[in-house]
Amino acid sequence: MRIEQLEYLTAVTQHGSLRRASEKLHLSQPALSEALTKLERELRVTLLDRRRSGAQISREGRELLPYMSDVLAAVERLRNAAGDRRTDARVIRIGTVHAATSTLLIPAVRAFQERHPGTTVEVLTLQQAAIDDGVADGTLDLGLVNVLDGDATPVGLDGIDLLHGRPVAVLPAGHGLTARPQVTIEELRQERFVMMRPGYVMHRYVHRAFGPEVPPAAHSTDGAEMGKALVAEGVGVTVLPDYAVIGDPLHRVGMIEARPIAGDQTYLTLQLRQRTSLQQPLPVRELQAALTARATQYRAAGASSSAAS
């Protein structure tokens, strides 16, 4: 029995079919099937139901899965314990949709690297689905994503809430709507709009909030950072989570303004995603702690500002 055989069966369970598991594992379907067939022979149990429509995990396989998960978790703990004792540098890969980059991610990475100067933090800008897939298959250590109320965390992942906020209209300095304490959906509908591309939560929010009459897109882009830059240059207006705007350098110097959206009751959450039941290496745990600590500081600063006003 080989460890990768157990990992293969877990992948079939996670992705729902032999075909999808082979794609995620970057392994040919015949090779994957053969590896699992050998495991079935060794255990003397049928692990997969093979049909014309495809192969899925069998009832017997599901019953054995918790034991396999325990073995894989123990192996992961062993690897990580060995990794914690290595003195060589490593790379931590974190995927982000680029919300709260300057207010949360960058300060956390700076604090982390003061403690781990030999560790490289690789930040990848990705859409949420790609982040979740990367965390699930281990190509990413951590992920930062926005979620709307009611969004479920994918099976196999844990979500740690870092920041809670509301959607705000993001306006360039001097725009007529900055004179208002809040703006309406109808007012935004009349503006040239910077739209997040499909695959981002804010794209889904805009279609939910505006209904069938979505404002004409002056530009579409990936991520909040480019959206704010386009707004600052007067290309259009956009809608982002307040924690992606308040305290951002463009906001601090007055190049963009944020206004609440009248009557909108939507809540957004910035979540840190990681694999369930995975004992992360020490540097990854410390980066997670730095992100959590920075989120606490940001919330405290926001509460102090609200109290002062």
Secondary structure elements and pairings:
Elements (H helix, E strand, L loop, with lengths): L2 H13 L2 H8 L3 H15 L4 E4 L2 E4 L1 H26 L6 E6 L4 H15 L4 E6 L2 H10 L4 E7 L8 E9 L1 E6 L12 H5 L3 E4 L4 H10 L6 E5 L2 H9 L5 E4 L7 H4 L3 E5 L7 E8 L6 H27 L1
Parallel strand pairs: 3-4, 3-5, 8-9
Antiparallel strand pairs: 1-2, 5-12, 6-12, 7-10, 7-11
Helix pairs in contact: 1-2, 1-3, 1-4, 5-11
Family: Belongs to the LysR transcriptional regulatory family.
Pfam family, one: LysR_substrate
Keywords: DNA-binding, Transcription, Transcription regulation
Low-confidence stretches: none
Query: Could you estimate the helical fraction of the residues in percent?
Result: 40-55%
What's the number of helices?
A: 11
- Strands ordered across the widest β-sheet: 4-3-5-12-6
- How large is the share of residues in beta strands? 15-25%
InterPro entries: LysR_HTH_N, LysR_subst-bd
Organism: Nocardioides daeguensis
Protein name: LysR family transcriptional regulator
Pfam families: HTH_1, LysR_substrate
Your description of this structure?
Helix content is 46%, strand content 22%. It has eleven helices and twelve strands. The strands form four sheets. The chain has a five-stranded mixed β-sheet with strand order 4-3-5-12-6, sandwiched between helices. Strands 10-7-11 form a three-stranded antiparallel β-sheet. Strand 3, helix 5 and strand 4 form a beta-alpha-beta unit. The longest helix has 27 residues, at 282-308. The protein is elongated and about 75 Å long. It starts with a helix and ends with a helix. The model has no long low-confidence stretch (mean pLDDT 87).
